[in-house]
Design goal:
Elements (H helix, E strand, L loop, with lengths): L2 H5 L2 H10 L6 H7 L4 H13 L3 E6 L2 E6 L5 H29 L1
Antiparallel strand pairs: 1-2
């Protein structure tokens, strides 16, 4: 699954925002949202499949944390838009400079 597909869901984005503070278990995450633990687990599975979170076993508990490397594909996608926008801006500025000359 592509990271952008996983980020298309508001609940998954909210989970990622919570995980920015540090690793959390499913139970800890479920306490912060009006959804069940199984629902949080399903969202975490999607985020893990997209490479956006990683899980670490600590005793009998799984702790989830943000996997920053997983956002590389999102950044590349957005950077393509910036590159296009900057090229258009440069072209417009060049045309305007030539018009003044």
């Amino acid at each position: 699954m592509h990271a952008l597909d996983a980020l298309g869901n508001a609940a998954r984005r909210a989970i990622l925002r919570e995980l920015r503070q540090g690793p959390l278990s499913v139970v800890q995450l479920a306490e912060r949202f009006p959804v069940s633990r199984p629902a949080v687990s399903r969202h975490l599975a999607v985020l893990a499949a997209a490479g956006l979170v990683e899980v670490r076993e600590v005793g009998a508990t799984n702790l989830y944390s943000v996997r920053v490397q997983g956002f590389a594909s999102v950044r590349e996608f957005l950077d393509d838009f910036w590159d296009t926008a900057l090229k258009r801006l440069q072209k417009a500025a060049t045309a305007r400079a030539r018009a003044r000359d």
